[in-house]
Amino acid sequence: MFESLLIANRGEIARRIIKTANKLGIRTVAVHSEADADLPYVKEADESVHIGPADPALSYRNVDAILTAAEQTGAAAIHPGYGFGSENPDFARAVTAAGLIWVGPGPDAIAAMGDKINARNIMAAAGVPVAPGTGEPVADAEAATARAAEIGYPVMVKAAAGGGGMGMAVADDAEALPKVLAQIQGVAERLFGSGDVLIERFYPRVRHIEVQILGLADGRVLTLGERECSVQRRNQKLVEETPSPALDPELRARFLDAARRAGEAVSYQNAGTVEFLLDADTRDFFFLEMNTRLQVEHPITETVYGVDLVAAQLKVAAGEDPKINDPAPAGHAIEFRVNAEDPKRFLPGPGVITEWTEPQGRGVRVDSGYARGNTVPRFYDSLMAKLIVSGPDRATAIERARAALSEFAIAGPKQNLPFFLELLDNEEFTGGTYDTGIVGRMR
């Protein structure tokens, strides 16, 4: 195991990684922008380095600044967390070229899965189910209309290089398609530097289900169950749970087998997640994308499977066997993303935290990035903390969640805790029959 680790991230995930590194006796180095100098993770690391102004392009995405910080502090490895540079193959290559250890999959796997068209074609060749769609970029409105007629409306137009729920929109018919195509091509070029888009069949009633994988140095790809991620706003997740209330043992086995095939198709090593859409009516499921990093919602898998995924990441990166061999799940866990946003329209509301009281109790875990007196800045994702609640069964987890959400006190920035309490009174959610449209129906 390497002796020192630089965390190229911020907030709760940096704090989460530091916690496990401390347990393993690894010296930690935090990097921070000007806006984050007073956050808890900066103080909890063994050493910290200021790497630039608040603008993430000049700090957390600044590869040269991060590598300079690693050289100055003698860090032997870099953990990218999630977001920022975590799925940038050039960043991974630069880290290894500098003689450092990259805590994540190899750059070739990152690059292969970073392009949705390429990823879709690789998965189809490996026998992983994919939705009807295009296997090459759509050139123009004429080509898009012809292919959409073959696929069948409605269709989803997606940025090939997109991620995080961004760069996608639905076209209901041939009349709407050219406008949607031009819109997404523009968004794709602006956000991702590539105007390439693909078209897939859109399924109005789906559930978003993902599988945690862990690729080992010996070539094996382990699966650690699924996570239900269907509570979303603007295609971005708000609540996740495991196990999914939608899956029976036979369907779960098919999901896990498909995820294992996906990992093996790109010789995957380290932690990753294979995302699928499940048609709520036909029970067919399709590959959506592979996230070549640690997911925000990884704690619910840790809770139910009794593993430390960050420790597993570090051990695999160091060439060690994490000694995880298909552990059996126990109980149920739900994660709530506590964001600095209003609970009705989900618009960001950053600000100074004047009150911060975390809930406690049996089955309650809080992974937070802030404390009272900190400022939630406007420059980054609005995530402040993750509330993870577990129990021996789903009903107990929901009941404990009600109590924990009621005890969580935040003042200053806007926060979405009231939405979660509303969700726990929703019959679709409590009955486990919900799909990705649940938030829209609640609003």
How much beta, percentage-wise? Answer: 25-35%
CATH topology name of the largest domain, in short, is D-amino Acid Aminotransferase, Chain A, domain 1
The CATH superfamily title of the largest domain: ATP-grasp fold, B domain
The number of distinct β-strands equals 20
Structure annotation, total helices: 15
Placed side by side, the strands forming the largest sheet appear as 13-12-9-10-11-14-19-17
Number of self-contained structural domains: 3
Name the CATH architecture of the largest domain. Answer: 2-Layer Sandwich
- The radius of gyration over CA amounts to 21 Å
Helix content: 25-40%
| Helix/sheet category | alpha+beta
- The chain-level mean pLDDT equals 97
Uncertain segments of ≥5 residues (pLDDT<50)? none
Q: Describe the global form.
A: globular
CATH class of the largest domain, please?
Alpha Beta
What's the main sheet like?
8 strands, antiparallel
Termini gap: 50 Å
Domain Biotin carboxylation: 1-443
Keywords: ATP-binding, Biotin, Ligase, Nucleotide-binding
Enzyme class: ligase
Protein name: biotin carboxylase
